[in-house]
Amino acid sequence: MSHRGITSTNFSIADLALAQTGRHQISLAQNEMPGLMAIRAEYAQSQPLAGARISVSLSITVQTAVLVETLVALGARVRLASCNIFSSQDEAAAALVVGSGTSESPAGISVFGWKGESSKEFWWCLDQILDWSNYPDADGNTHPGPTSIIDDGGDLIYLVHQGIEFEKSGVLHRQNSWIESEHEIVRELLAASQSKNPTRFATLVSQVIGASEETTTGIQRLEELSRKGELKFPVINVNDAVTKSKFDNKYGIRHSLVDGLNRATDVLIGGKVAFVAGYGDVGKGCAEALAGQGARVIIGEIDPICALQAAMDGYQVAQLEEVIEQLDFVITATGNIDIVRPEHFLKLKNLAILANVGHFDNEIDMHGLEALEGAQKVQIKPLVDQWTLPNGRSILVLSEGRVMNLGNATGHPSFVMSASFTNQAMAQIELAQNATNLEPRVHLIGKLADEKVARLHLPALGVSLTKLSERQAGYISVPVEGPYKPDQYRY
Ligand SMILES: NC(=O)c1ccc[n+]([C@@H]2O[C@H](COP(=O)([O-])OP(=O)(O)OC[C@H]3O[C@@H](n4cnc5c(N)ncnc54)[C@H](O)[C@@H]3O)[C@@H](O)[C@H]2O)c1
């Protein structure tokens, strides 16, 4: 397979000429990513990732580039693909491939991804980053696959697990996040792999010491594998580090939701009515951002605790059906399926805006929309579609129902991603140093490590932390140096 961009054995991206632009942005981002830069400085000498081959599936953004170059600075080699078909920044991909000639950024980081992949290209890219056979190390040795994985959403880890199952049974189990065509794409990919090498995935997995997973939806899928006893290696849960989900998911989306809406539509938000489905970490950030712009925000929730939180935060809480005719914006942030369905599309106001920020593209039923008889799509600009419905009204759908803060904008800003990705870098160091002691299940990041990530970000914001005295520490029964909270503390 090839695409309209530039392809070699070890990379496939949109345009190498974007490298300089990408490099400028990476340099600026480094300034806003103090946690990752501190990890680089701390571990530059000891090289804890020496010998590691890491297959990374994350949105190929400028912030991911800083993470990837941090892993390289710690001794690792990396192959990177995108976790979403619309979330790549082509300039970041180009800068990584070209490199800057420094030790953390030698030319030749393997990147497979570009903005606007088809589903088939997406899975091809994931397959490419698992194949290390044409990517010899400095001693000229080649290896079939990675020693560890970084994933966002669980697709890469699932592919590896299903590859083994397929080699045994010839059957691919259907994922409930996949539509039929995607299932067939993965089946064809695994069949082609099997015909070339019937034990490729079994061999590959035997060399994987572990993985770290970035997002809520990925963790839910991997917990399910773990519960069934099917997980083949330990997975470190980066998402549920406090310094990830309570920061990236909430404060990150508080920035990038409005950024995406503005870049896509430039419609005034103030005074309008916005519905946010889901009042978890991401939904809370969405609601705050929209309210901050002066919108009247209505929350939809299934969980009574989150519904009560939303009410006490001052939002109306309602079922979508009860308020649909008033809505100017509908934002989905549940990680669940079938939130906005055909019966809803037909009740929306003319030119209401529909946007999803959950991981998969099944929160807004896009197939249901396509199947509405007489519905017609006109592209206003890339990733902004006006759908005219059989009732004569139109709705605007952003990023074809996929994560719009990455599709219509560039995702979360560097500072908040620094906290998330410092957790990723520390998780990979933990795997390199301690994976043999970890059972094949999902593991939380320890409180001390979590507090360290926060600590690394305080000086940049001018925070002056109060020092706990010995007497105070004894009184509340915590060590002077932390951790300061019990595991069950919720922040
Ligand atoms: N776009 C981004 O940049 C970004 C960043 C982080 C996470 N995510 C993704 O966003 C999604 C939400 O993540 P989160 O961390 O907020 O998860 P969460 O579990 O904290 O919140 C999801 C909320 O949705 C609610 N919910 C579930 N089904 C619902 C339904 N039918 N109607 C209304 N509410 C429903 C749940 O009760 C929960 O409170 C996940 O898919 C996650 O992977 C996206």
Q: Using the CA coordinates, give the radius of gyration.
A: 23 Å
CATH topology of the largest domain: Rossmann fold
Helix/strand structural class? alpha/beta
User: How many helices?
Assistant: 20
The number of domains: 2
Strand content: 5-15%
Mean pLDDT: 96
Low-confidence stretches: none
For the terminal residues, how far apart are their CA atoms?
47 Å
Describe the protein:
It is built from 20 helices and 17 strands. 50% of the residues are buried. The chain is of the alpha/beta class and 491 residues long. The strands form three sheets. Strands 11-10-9-12-13-16-15-14 form an eight-stranded mixed β-sheet. A seven-stranded parallel β-sheet has the order 5-4-3-6-7-8-17, sandwiched between helices. It starts with 5 loop residues before the first strand and ends in a 15-residue tail after the last helix. The model has no long low-confidence stretch (mean pLDDT 96). The chain has helices at residues 19-31, 34-43, 62-73, 90-98, 119-130, 155-169, 180-196, 200-206, 216-227, 242-245, 248-265, 281-292, 304-312, 320-323, 342-345, 366-371, 404-407, 414-434, 447-457, 470-476, and strands at 6-8, 11-13, 53-57, 77-81, 110-112, 148-151, 210-213, 235-237, 273-277, 296-300, 316-317, 329-332, 352-356, 376-381, 384-388, 394-398, 442-444. Helix 3 packs parallel to helix 4. The chain has two domains: 6-246 and 412-448, Rossmann fold (3-Layer(aba) Sandwich); 251-407, Rossmann fold. Bound molecules: nicotinamide-adenine-dinucleotide. Residues 215-217, 245, 249, 253, 277-283, 300-303, 306, 333-336, 339, 357-359, 403, 405, 411-412 line the site of nicotinamide-adenine-dinucleotide.
